[in-house]
């Protein structure tokens, strides 16, 4: 039988925490990176999102891009739909940053609703972080550009 949704969500949190265990945020406090996916999931939960897949994608949204995680690994652990949604939110790190941002804008309309919700919560949390703490090494102009783009 399928594990209960809460158990699946907890397993997803543990997976994401393990994958991001050596990473920190860019903020001055070097916050553990896992706080970001947790915050993205929390934002969605606070506005009433209860869909398990959406919350799992929120927790996993940076794993393919920022950790040693493979598509088959996500598919095996969380199913093809979660893997597909996470993949749709993953930037091509072979592209220059400006080209990457343009690619995000081009694909935004075609994203599945669940992925759109995660993308919005992700950007919201990033903007909140920048406004609350700033990012060391980023000029005010660069921070403002990110916020305007988000």
TrEMBL record:
Residues 29-136 form the HD/PDEase domain. SMART domains: HDc. Pfam families: HD_4. This is Guanosine-3',5'-bis(diphosphate) 3'-pyrophosphohydrolase MESH1. It comes from the Eukaryota. InterPro entries: HD/PDEase_dom, MESH1. ppGpp hydrolyzing enzyme involved in starvation response. GO terms for molecular function: guanosine-3',5'-bis(diphosphate) 3'-diphosphatase activity. Belongs to the MESH1 family.
């Amino acid at each position: 039988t399928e594990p209960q949704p809460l158990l699946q969500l907890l397993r997803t949190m543990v997976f994401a925490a393990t994958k991001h265990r050596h990473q920190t945020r860019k903020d001055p406090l070097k916050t553990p990176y896992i706080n970001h996916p947790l915050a993205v999931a929390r934002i969605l939960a606070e506005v009433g999102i209860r869909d398990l897949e959406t919350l799992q994608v929120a927790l996993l949204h940076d794993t393919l891009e920022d950790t040693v995680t493979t598509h088959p690994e996500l598919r095996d652990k969380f199913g093809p739909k979660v893997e597909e949604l996470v993949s749709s939110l993953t930037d091509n790190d072979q592209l220059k940053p400006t080209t990457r941002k343009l690619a995000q804008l081009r694909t935004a309309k075609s994203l599945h609703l669940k992925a759109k919700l995660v993308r919005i919560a992700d950007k919201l949390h990033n903007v909140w972080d920048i406004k609350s703490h700033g990012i060391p090494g980023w000029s005010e102009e660069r921070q403002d550009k990110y916020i305007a783009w988000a």
